[in-house]
Amino acid sequence: MASSALRPAFAYTVVYVKDVAKSVDFYANAFGYHVRRLDDSHRWGELESGQTTIAFTPVQQHETDDRTGQVRTPKSGDERPSMEVCFAYADIDAAYKRAVENGATAISPPEDKEWAQRVGYVRDIDGNVVRMGSYVAKQTK
Measured between alpha carbons, how far is residue 105 from residues 32, 45, 55, 108, 121 in Å? Predict the structure, then answer.
């Protein structure tokens, strides 16, 4: 077993976006998060999201492009990024409604799934898929 010094805490999910300030504002309004930080250059923004942080940075990130490669964005609505952001809510139907009313594009409304979760999907203002679901009870053995 790895020592606790080598066991990481999940710290950030970074979402690459066209306009950091607009995305921070959108996520705060559509999904109910509080803004932790938006730097003066508008090249980095963060939302309070519990033990982890949702961060935003521009798609064209010259600090890392030449080290890690350019960010690939979907070319059409038929494509999606290789990841999605997932949020859990106590009232998924109300949360989904708020997201759509605040600019999220509806993909599929919440529906009950066989794994005992209610799930709906939207796209954010950059076309990223956001999965919105109810909490799932922990399984006991």
Answer: 16, 22, 21, 9, 9
CB half-sphere exposure, 119, CA atoms < 13 A: 12
Cβ-in-10-Å burial (0-12, 13-18, 19+) of 20 comes to buried
Give Cα separations from 63 to 17, 69, 72, 140 (angstroms). Answer: 15, 10, 16, 45
Q: What is the pTM of this model?
A: 0.81
Summarised one tens digit per residue, pLDDT across range 88-121 is: 999 999 999 999 999 999 999 999 999 889 999 9
- DSSP assignments along 23-78, one per residue: HHHHHHHHH-PEEEEE-TTSS-EEEEETTEEEEEEESS-HHHHHHH-PPP--SSTT
* Mean pLDDT computed over 40-44: 92
Q: Parse the chain into domains and list their residue ranges.
A: 10-63+84-134
Domain at 10-63+84-134: CATH architecture = Roll (3.10)
What is the pLDDT at residue 88?
92
